[in-house]
Amino acid sequence: MAERIDVEVAYVAPGVQFLRSLSLGVPASVADAIRESRVEAECGIDAGRLGVGIWSKPASRTTQLKQGDRVEIYRPLRIDPKEARRQRAKSSPIR
Q1: What is the pTM of this model?
Q2: CB atoms within 10 A of CB 51
Q3: Which of 20, 43, 77, 94 could form a disulfide with 37 if both were Cys (CB 3.0 to 4.6 A apart)?
Q4: How many domains does the chain have?
């Protein structure tokens, strides 16, 4: 019997939370997990254009997965965090 690993694929967007547990044959890559999860069809996204990571660390689609990995699909930032902080500071009263 071929060795298998258990992984998760996660994607979150406004109004959408996708988390799928998978059992994949070894070797398995990030791309394999994304394809098998069907996240693209179910969430209407093109994961090939989005960033990916494993447990909050950037990864490539060819990265080989290990038992217990969580593949995360990242949406692009809508605004630079520094700019968001400036806007909040500008609109809040001075204390």
Answers
A1: 0.79
A2: 13
A3: 20
A4: 1
